[in-house]
Amino acid sequence: MRIAALFLLAALPVVALTIHVPADQPTIQAGIDVASEGDTVIVASGTYTGDGNRDLDFGGKEIALIGAGMDLTILDVEGVSGSGDSHFGVKITGGQGRTTLLQDLTILNGYMYGQASGLLISQSSPTVRGVAVRECSTGYYVRAVVSYDGAPLIVDCVVAHCSSGGISLSHGAPELVDVDVYSCGSYQSGNGINLAGTDAVLTRVHVRFNMNPIVGGGIYISGGSPVLSDCLIEGNWAQDQFVGEGGGVFCGHSSTAEFNGCRFLDNVAGNKGGALSVYEASPTLIDCYFSENDGGYTGGTIAYTVGSGVLRNCTIVRSLGGAVFASHESSTPTIENCILAMSESGTGVRAEIGALPNILCSDIFDHPGGLFGGEMPDVIGIAGNFSADPIFCDPSGGDFRIWADSPCAPGNNECGVLIGALPVGCGTATKATTWSEVKALF
Questions:
Q1: Which domain holds residue 369?
Q2: Is 34 part of any domain?
Q3: What is the pTM of this model?
Q4: Residue 244 predicted with pLDDT over 50
Q5: CATH number for 226
Q6: Where are the beta strands (DSSP E) in 179-323?
Q7: 46 pLDDT higher than 70
């Protein structure tokens, strides 16, 4: 009878518990410590400080830690730079999977010299949803949020005002969806997002107003094959006048990154590659839109240095320093079905030191420094390339879709394809004001 009862007890399902902080346990770590696999720790609204509410460790358990909301449950870590009083927010390092959940809270004021100060994920793949990490610093080249060799899912999160940088994803295959990274990095170090040897997937990620003194103000990519789709890369800086490159993105070290439908706006590099700098890498960019990026001293909204890859169905307008710059004989990017138009300064395509971009079915129009510069040959009339007003819907108003009778519309060009990133968005341009006519008004 006793043996039968034991078997019956063993067969009963384990009921997951909900532990409330501070109602059931006085601190967040106390709630985590008493939780078992599958349990949920609910943290009420309020600001939580001091021991037990910082340096939180999931302890290898598959549990959920859920606040009352990003703006309602605040973990004020109170880390102080230079004082020896170093503290981080949360770490998940026990090999947990996607059922482990961190949700609906803010981690504030973390400081750990040379270590992740906000959130550390190592060799684990939790789900992080509705979490903000703000004003965290490492005092070094380590970002506030770090994922190493895992596949976490990070959704609807914010990383902001972290002076040593926002997010670092190293190795593994993490996913970021609807994440906003802004105002991270400084004149000394950091940037928005660092991707190192990873096959990360970034979807609708906004990377805005971040900076690095030298390279990759918005995003730094080293190796790996990350995929970025429908992302916004805006207002980022790599500001050094002599070596600053990749204001928006730096892509290097054999990376084969992919960008699909991304927007690069108002990024600045002190030397070259206002939106994107490619070094010994081969990224593919499809359906991407570039506007008002500043390539600095050397120039180029996109700069290839010993770089290749594909630029297909992209629109590059209002560049400062020209649209595309390529240098060194190994720089052989393919530019296909693209509009390169209306630069504020510089050339359409410039090549130096043996570089030779392969341009196909593209419209290269209206560049103050000429359509081509340096060693780049004139390819107008070759391989479907032409130079004609794209007839944008409303260039003065920032609408760079094209009219139905634009030479870049399908059926209106030798290649019979859509040229540029943006579709037909307005009717026949019989009475439209062309870009040339717009410029004549000023």
A1: 52-440
A2: no
A3: 0.93
A4: yes
A5: 2.160.20
A6: 180-182, 193-196, 201-203, 206-208, 211-212, 219-222, 227-229, 232-234, 237-238, 249-252, 258-260, 263-265, 268-269, 276-279, 284-286, 289-291, 302-305, 310-312, 315-317
A7: yes
